[in-house]
């Protein structure tokens, strides 16, 4: 189950990145406003109408895009128009002013690597490097153009490696913050939003179920075979749960040996069937992989969503069903029924004397 993918599956990742980098975008807009706009106007005045037009058109497309990202929280015209106008402006400016204009290309290609999706950045930079080198040839010695191209290629390669490492680090940190490090299941802090969304869906008739899953007598596994074996057993449990439910179901580790499985639009009958399969596969898996710890079973409490019910009460109902499963001898799957509330209250009162 790829919970991370589930949590971002409907979003456009590039747009999300751009939206997160609004401060950088604002800075880039400011820098281009104080450089490209005066340059564009100057070129119009000195008769370089084509260059002046493309520089100002680029600036205009950038302003439109940045305003859309700030106001509408999405791209309006996309990457292509500003990048196309930028490429033309660079080539024209080197064609007109020669070597002096080549210095501008370095910050431009670096910014493209940092702000534009990888493939588009590579394509745009390839076009800029190739086009600007061709435009520079009549103005300087071949060796100077060769050095210019090599320096640009080195800059762009370093920027790609750095940004690749940063994005990987970002992904790893995000995973660390939402997932349990032992099992890879989502941690309990991710649960509230998902349960709330599922409760909201129940209001629209899209009910589903949750299952609270607890390993039976897990303390004995630790006591008899050691903590490491306990960890291995927990991992097998999570693996088997993941193997026997759908990608769209979400598994949370609540702590210790307890898990909550949030099914995606699933009836009680189907949830019970999946729970039985999970329990059987866990028993089978541990017997096969760690025969010394065989005999590990699960107790599972299932509760169906009720429209407009608080998520805490929903989990509480699954907990009561789990309590029933434990007290009926463990290795059981119980579905919440209203009498669970009464029985549990009586049991608690009896326990308190
Ligand atoms: N190996 C290991 N043990 C853990 C971990 N987290 C909690 N535990 C242990 O898991 C055990 C949980 O035991 P309980 O849930 O109290 O009880 P149980 O033995 O499972 O009994 P029942 O739930 O009543 O069937 C405790 O001994 C904890 O120390 C972990 O990450 N790894």
Fold and architecture overview:
It is a single chain. This protein is of the alpha/beta class. The protein folds into two domains: 3-178, no CATH class; 186-352, 2-Layer Sandwich (Alpha-Beta Plaits), CATH 3.30.70.270. The chain is 68% helix and 8% strand. It is built from 15 helices and six strands. A six-stranded mixed beta sheet has the order 1-3-4-2-5-6, with helices on both faces. Helix 7 packs antiparallel against helix 8 and helix 11 packs across helix 12. The chain starts with a helix and ends with a helix. The model is unreliable at 1-16 (pLDDT under 50). Bound molecules: guanosine-5'-triphosphate (GTP). Guanosine-5'-triphosphate is lined by residues 182, 214-219, 222, 227, 230-231, 234, 256-257, 326, 330. Guanosine-5'-triphosphate (GTP) is lined by residues 182, 214-219, 222, 227, 230-231, 234, 256-257, 326, 330.
């Amino acid at each position: 189950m790829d919970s991370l993918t589930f949590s971002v599956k409907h979003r456009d990742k590039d747009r999300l990145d751009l939206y997160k980098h609004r401060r950088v975008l604002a800075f880039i807009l400011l820098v281009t406003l104080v450089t490209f706009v005066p340059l564009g106007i100057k070129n119009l005045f000195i008769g370089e109408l084509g260059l002046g037009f493309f520089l100002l058109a680029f600036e205009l497309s950038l302003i439109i895009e940045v305003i859309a990202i700030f106001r509408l929280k999405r791209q309006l015209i996309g990457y292509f128009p500003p990048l196309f106008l930028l490429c033309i402006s660079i080539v024209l400016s080197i064609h007109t002013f020669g070597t002096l204009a080549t210095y501008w290309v370095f910050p431009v290609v670096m910014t493209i690597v940092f702000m534009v999706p990888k493939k588009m950045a590579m394509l745009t930079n390839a076009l800029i490097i190739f086009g600007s080198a061709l435009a520079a040839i009549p103005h300087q010695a071949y060796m100077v153009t060769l050095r210019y191209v090599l320096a640009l290629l080195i800059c762009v390669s370093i920027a790609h490696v750095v940004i690749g490492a940063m994005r990987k680090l970002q992904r790893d940190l995000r995973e660390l913050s939402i997932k349990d490090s032992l099992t890879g299941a989502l941690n309990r802090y991710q649960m509230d939003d998902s349960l709330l969304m599922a409760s909201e869906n129940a209001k629209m008739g899209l009910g589903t179920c949750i299952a609270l899953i607890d390993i039976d007598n897990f303390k004995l596994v630790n006591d008899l075979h050691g903590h490491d074996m306990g960890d291995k057993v927990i991992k097998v449990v999570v693996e088997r749960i993941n193997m026997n439910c759908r990608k769209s179901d979400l598994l949370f580790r609540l702590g210790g040996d307890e898990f909550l499985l949030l099914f995606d639009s699933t009836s009680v009958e189907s949830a019970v069937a999946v729970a039985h399969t999970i329990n059987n596969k866990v028993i089978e898996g541990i017997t096969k992989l760690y025969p010394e710890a065989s005999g590990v079973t699960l107790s599972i409490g299932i509760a169906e969503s009720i429209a407009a019910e608080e998520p805490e009460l929903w989990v509480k109902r699954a907990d009561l069903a789990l309590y029933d499963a434990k007290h009926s001898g463990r290795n059981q799957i119980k579905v919440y029924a209203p009498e669970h509330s009464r029985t549990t209250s009586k049991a608690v009162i009896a326990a308190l004397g």
